[in-house]
Amino acid sequence: MTGGLVTALSDVRVTKRIVNTPTPMTTPGLVIFGYVHDKGGAGVGSVNIYRNYASYPGVLIAITDEDGYYQSDFYPIPGDEMVSIWAEGLGLTYEPVHATNRY
Length: 103
Known about the structure:
- The protein is mostly beta strands and 103 residues long.
- It contains no helices and eleven strands.
- It has strands spanning 7-8, 12-15, 29-30, 33-38, 48-53, 59-63, 69-71, 75-76, 82-88, 94-95, 99-102.
- The strands form four sheets. Strands 6-5-9-11 form a four-stranded antiparallel sheet, with no helix packed on it. Strands 2-4-7 form a three-stranded antiparallel sheet, with no helix packed on it.
- A hairpin with a 5-residue loop joins strand 5 and strand 6.
- The termini are close together.
């Protein structure tokens, strides 16, 4: 799975912009990346991006840089899992609250 998955509801939005394509791995897994932008298009830094698997608690996987860009490391997916991604921080409300896919 690749792409920006989090959009902010109040003054921040995420757009999908693939900067680089991750190297294919033999182990099933994911790399999450994208941008967080405000409604005017400016990047929003210091937003925490979290990921969880259905059977595991959420973990911090990335923090946006000053341009709003984030990219996680590669994370293997342990079997058949539901994966959720969300953003938190800066006192903002993000949309969707969770982006979820089954892998």
